[in-house]
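[SOLVED] Need 3D model of a two-part complex

Original post:
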Amino acid sequence: MAKIYLGIDLGGTEVKLAVVDAYGNILEHASFQNSFNSVPEEVVAEIVRFSRNMKHFSEVSATGVGVAGDIDQQKGVVRFSPNLPRWKNTPLKKLLERELPGIISIDNDANAAAWGAYWLDAKGKVRNLICVTLGTGVGGGIICDGKLYRGATGTAGEIGHIPLNPDGPRCNCGSFGCIERYVGAAHLSSQAKELLKTRKHSKILTLSGGDPDAITPYILARAAESNDTIAINIWKTAGRQLGIVFAGIINFFNPEMIVLAGGVSKAGKLILDPIKETVRERAFEKPASICKIVISKYTQKLGVVGAAFLSR
Amino acid sequence: MAKIYLGIDLGGTEVKLAVVDAYGNILEHASFQNSFNSVPEEVVAEIVRFSRNMKHFSEVSATGVGVAGDIDQQKGVVRFSPNLPRWKNTPLKKLLERELPGIISIDNDANAAAWGAYWLDAKGKVRNLICVTLGTGVGGGIICDGKLYRGATGTAGEIGHIPLNPDGPRCNCGSFGCIERYVGAAHLSSQAKELLKTRKHSKILTLSGGDPDAITPYILARAAESNDTIAINIWKTAGRQLGIVFAGIINFFNPEMIVLAGGVSKAGKLILDPIKETVRERAFEKPASICKIVISKYTQKLGVVGAAFLSR
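Solution:
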């Protein structure tokens, strides 16, 4: 009988659970709210309750959890999570092992998403893949030789903190000019806000109800689709900036595939076309020509399916 | 009985051969000149002749060759070599298999050097390592999970073509502002030449016999050691520039070790100290703290020993 897995995407605002078959199909799913001050033991109790209520619970052969934070995968410990301050050296694996059947695997959420992209977008058919999560932050995960690559301390894949311009503005991480500082959701919105200071008529403002503080990447994508020049230029610039960093990654890592996921990737061709053009202009010809750059068709599922497959 | 290997470093100006024991000790070695217009069959005949003259030839269990060029490792073919234009789709493995015993492995010279650094500098005791060759060009190789990582088309490790400043000067590769364009040997020398236009008295000029075109990284290192401020600043800047790129590599790849090799790395602390300082300032704390950055103690041997160990 084909195996069935439980995948859990443990984020700062929401916990998603899904029972997944061996092909990555979601058989059933559930979710509940999480909050900044959530207490690990209470969240674990909720996870257990929701899991046990799943129709397929008795068939689950292994469970995986992707957590937004710094994870010790070997020990299954959440070292810390910026958006869940009470989770500090939390032995999540141990807490779950008492309550859930089979092997429990814990990993970083970006790693889980990369593992999901590897199985869903690439169908497990490439050897080396990079997954880039474009959202508030820019995260990533690396599949190397068909395996999730975690690096020496489990922090590999921090693509958002590759420098684009070393003399650029300070980044949250303490460095300067990291790519996240240019294409993170909030930075895209504030670029628009800045550019609108000199131009009052823009589809962006119509869509944000006249409030520059309400501008989101979603609004910027809709405005660009309505031919708003400011919005179009913001996406072109963001794509070009990502393309520059990707060209370096392609020369260095020579992957078969780069998968873009996360909310900002929903801009689709608006961001994908300038990325591809810049990579063609800047990366070595051969590695660039074989590297497929795509937007994930499964953004919503990557986290839970990737988590479910961690024990595969 | 411990195995014995033959390693060959096939460069554009010289071919080095060495018989190497399982610990990386060179038991005997030889070399002969190579030239821009060399013909593959003739070079192969020389390799065979030199190999057969080795005292330990009969004990050799496998042979590895590192070639300066684009290599198909699987087929053992030299696709092309910028400095050996007559080597084009040369089936080097086949040519050697007829004449030399045991398994023959062919790889890129930067990969061979990285493999050498992994066994000699890291003693095979880390999982993930980057080797950066600083010379005329800036090359590199990646050890991932204890294995030589070649990427999808065998071009992985092109560290010299990670962008430092995307708006910077054009690089030979066609892109702009690649790190090689700043810290490659010729660029270091021409920086000095440029700076000397406004200052006629410098230890650099004394050491180069008054000829700005005779400035080399070796001279710049000697001048810096004599407290020449221009030379000191050139090394500080180069170290800072490499440190910026390494910070990105550390965040992305999270290696245990970065080994510097090649002629320019002989500047030692002059370049190593600003690299380390910049990495501390810019990379994530945990991956930066565990990543040892060292200058290879075996620069001269890395190529042949790494090649010899390709079949290990």
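Edit: Residues 247 and 283 of chain A are 5 Å apart (CA to CA).
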